[in-house]
Design brief:
The structure holds two protein chains of two kinds.
Chain A (H helix, E strand, L loop, with lengths): L2 E5 L2 E3 L5 E8 L7 E7 L5 E7 L6 E3 L7 E6 L4 E6 L8 E9 L8 E5 L3 E5 L2
Parallel strand pairs in A: 2-11
Antiparallel strand pairs in A: 1-3, 3-8, 4-5, 4-9, 5-6, 7-8, 9-10, 9-11
Chain B lengths: L3 E4 L2 E4 L5 E7 L7 E6 L6 E5 L3 E2 L7 E6 L2 E6 L9 E6 L6 E2 L3 E5 L1
Parallel strand pairs in B: 2-11
Antiparallel strand pairs in B: 1-3, 3-8, 4-5, 4-9, 5-6, 7-8, 9-10, 9-11
The chains are: A mainly beta, B mainly beta.
């Protein structure tokens, strides 16, 4: 069974840092692109970041560029999101999601998604 | 960034009804559109990709159509388990973007 399990969320003060992890199982992690998508309480979905299967290509949403860093460890079947200089507007459930798309393309849809981890930025 | 506008933002329908949700892109995206279903407290679930391709395991009452800027998700006969929020997502280019969502409620 394909499974993604996020961890690392919690309460952090504005300006603080947090590192999210996503453990993948049930598929060849090193062959797939991965993404982080977030959802603020009661709001819609917002794509945050993308990383290619090798880690050589990375994209960020403008809202997090310069503050968040996506990375992966294919040997550990794990995806990460280092979040620095956190703001109240970063409060959200953060999902990791496997990217699925056309061969050779860097854009993708998402399937499956993890269950999410809640990040709350508040003093 | 490509903006996706979903309509309506919410609707009330009865079991057995035919439901149509619209997603309009601010510029042409060919068929690079996916649809997701999200239930309260749960992660989104992929329903449709490539505008009209049904994801494996998704009931055939769900269908998608459209290309360019105008897309629709149709539920041919609404079932009790279909009451949820539905999102479209474009994957034509970065930043990847989502529509604002359509909440389907019980009438």
């Amino acid at each position: 069974e394909v499974q993604l399990v996020e961890s690392g969320g919690g309460l952090v003060q504005p300006g603080g840092s947090l590192r999210l992890s996503c453990a993948a199982s049930g598929f060849t992690f090193s062959s797939y692109e991965m993404n982080w998508v977030r959802q603020a309480p009661g709001k819609g979905l917002e794509w945050v970041s993308y990383i290619s299967s090798s880690g050589s290509t990375i994209y960020y949403a403008d809202s997090v560029k310069g503050r968040f860093t996506i990375s992966r460890d294919n040997a550990k079947n794990s995806l990460y999101l280092q979040m620095n200089s956190l703001r109240a507007e970063d409060t959200a459930v953060y999902y990791c999601a496997r990217g699925v798309g056309y061969v050779g393309a860097t854009t993708s849809w998402f399937d499956p998604w993890g269950q999410g981890t809640l990040v709350t930025v508040s003093s | 960034a490509i903006q996706l506008t979903q309509s309506p933002s919410s609707l009330s329908a009865s079991v057995g009804d035919r439901v149509t949700i619209t997603c309009r892109a601010s510029q042409g995206i060919s068929s690079a559109l996916a649809w997701y279903q999200q239930k309260p407290g749960k992660a989104p679930k992929l329903l449709i990709y490539d505008a009209s391709s049904l994801e494996s395991g998704v009931p055939s009452r769900f269908s998608g159509s459209g290309s360019g800027t105008d897309f629709t998700l149709t539920i041919s006969s609404l079932q009790p388990e279909d009451f949820a929020t539905y999102y479209c997502q474009q994957f034509n280019n970065y930043p990847l973007t989502f529509g604002g969502g359509t909440k389907v409620e019980i009438k």
